[in-house]
Design a protein that fits this description.
- There is one protein chain.
- With 95 residues, this protein is an alpha+beta fold.
- A hairpin with a 2-residue loop joins strand 4 and strand 5.
- It has one domain: Alpha-Beta Plaits (2-Layer Sandwich), CATH 3.30.70.330.
- It has three helices and six strands; from the N terminus they run αβαβαββββ.
Length: 95
């Protein structure tokens, strides 16, 4: 089990993710070893909201080349968190 503050790395602030926040759905980058249960506990404790569902997505690193050298970007793990209706997360003061 990962601690609540180590589980959540950062919220995803893309246009698509911010549009879905109107519906009570938020996207976070999370620790590679975090589970759905870890994310659920972390969001409820850090933001004092009630979580309805958590979906987790693993993204592989993309293959890239730079100056003739082959490489790969870092893999990412994302959590899509749906809150119970009426709950809102405010990112104004930072995470």
């Amino acid at each position: 089990m990962i601690s609540e503050y180590d589980c959540l790395i950062a919220p995803v602030m893309t246009e698509k993710a911010m549009n879905s926040s109107k519906d009570g759905v938020y996207v976070f980058r999370i620790h590679q070893k975090a589970t759905k249960l870890d994310v659920n506990r972390a969001v409820e404790k850090v933001f004092s909201v009630k979580v309805e569902a958590v979906n987790v997505s693993n993204r592989k690193g993309k293959k890239r080349s730079f100056r003739g050298r082959r490489g790969e970007t870092k893999p990412r793990k994302l959590a899509i968190v749906r809150l119970v209706s009426g709950n809102v997360i405010n990112f104004e003061g930072g995470v």
